[in-house]
Amino acid sequence: MNKDLRRILEKQKYRVVGDHSGVKVCHWLGQRLIHNRSCYKERFYGINSHRCLQMTPAVNDCTQLCLFCWRFQGFGSTLPEVHDDPEEVLEGCLKAHRNLIQGFKGDPRCSPEDFAEAMEPNQVACSLSGEPTLYSHLGELFEACHDRGMTTFLVTNGTRPDVLAELDPLPTQLYVSVVAPDAETHRKLCAPLEASAWDDLMRTLDLLPSLDTRTVIRHTLVAGYNMGNEESYSRLIERADPDFVEAKGYVFVGDSRRRMTLDNMPSHDAVRAFSKRLAGLSGYEVRNEQHSSRVVLLARPGMGSTRIDGK
After folding, report:
1. How far, in whole angstroms, is CA 125 from its chain's centroid?
2. Residue 274, pLDDT score
3. Domain spans of the chain, in order of start
4. Are 171 and 126 in contact, with CB atoms under 8 Å apart?
């Protein structure tokens, strides 16, 4: 990896693993250890915020340059021709994660029991930055996680449907980002690097009903760009038939501040209003929300517990 890029990432509190992977401690892990406040994924799905490993096998490689993305976008591709071994990626990420959270051990607000649990992650969020489906050993990475008893979440922008169609094993939960109701908005907001990006996303949505895993459509809502037009969003939801839909407000953080303003960050009330209109049009049910994360969860009608363990 370019040494200047590595320096920028480390300044932003990433730890680079191998040639192309990265780890960063999630804000909510610290909140859980110090203040006993949990992220919305714990509230919605029952994962443990303090036991979640936030990582990516493609730290600076993506098929889009989304305006709302928080990552640094000043370098081109850094994925080498031969990708790192998945076992080495996972072990390296675990080692880096444990090193990053050492400071919590000495904080009197962090219980020894919680810290000990945090040192043994049981959930992997493959979502930190970049587009994970560009990593050629993604299925093997998930297999390594599952062999250790860890659940896995994958967040993808949907531009690699062929990868998802062949992915084995699938993650415990698959997120597809649908941040535009139409091709033109997608082009403006996501700045895809490939002309086929919207068509590829549609192919991914068509694929979702056939995948034997939990599926989520994620709408990142950016005021002034992609809010409203709930009818078009509802047609995309009908096409994908996901288990869940998350409507989440854009947050003015990281490198997105070079491209966005505070006015682009919708209030939770605006996210809630969008979600209620979308629920009415799609037939999905509003099931939960978390004000601090500006996010609302919709679920397919008749869906039981939204938690991974089904409880």
Report:
1. 7
2. 98
3. 3-217
4. yes
Instruction: Assess whether pLDDT exceeds 90 at residue 181.
Output: yes
Residue type, 91: E
- Which of these ranges, 69-73, 121-125, 217-221, has the smallest mean pLDDT? 69-73
Q: Tell me which residue of 67, 79, 93 sits closest to 254, measured CA to CA.
A: 67
Contacts of 23 (CB under 8 A, 6+ apart): 14, 15, 17, 53, 54, 55, 93, 96, 97, 100, 128
pLDDT above 90 for 147: yes
Q: How many residues does the chain have?
A: 311
Please tell me the pTM assigned to this model. Answer: 0.96
CA distances from 273 to 144, 268, 279, 301 (A): 41, 9, 10, 19
pLDDT at res. 203:
98
CB 134, CB 160: distance < 8 Å = yes
Of 85, 200, 199, 201, which Cα lies nearest the Cα of 144? 85
Cβ neighbours for 45, distance < 8 A, ≥ 6 positions apart: 173, 306, 307, 308
Residue 75's pLDDT band, with cuts at 50, 70 and 90, is: low
DSSP string, 126-150: E-SSS-GGGSTTHHHHHHHHHHTT-
Domain formed by 3-217, architecture? Alpha-Beta Barrel (3.20)
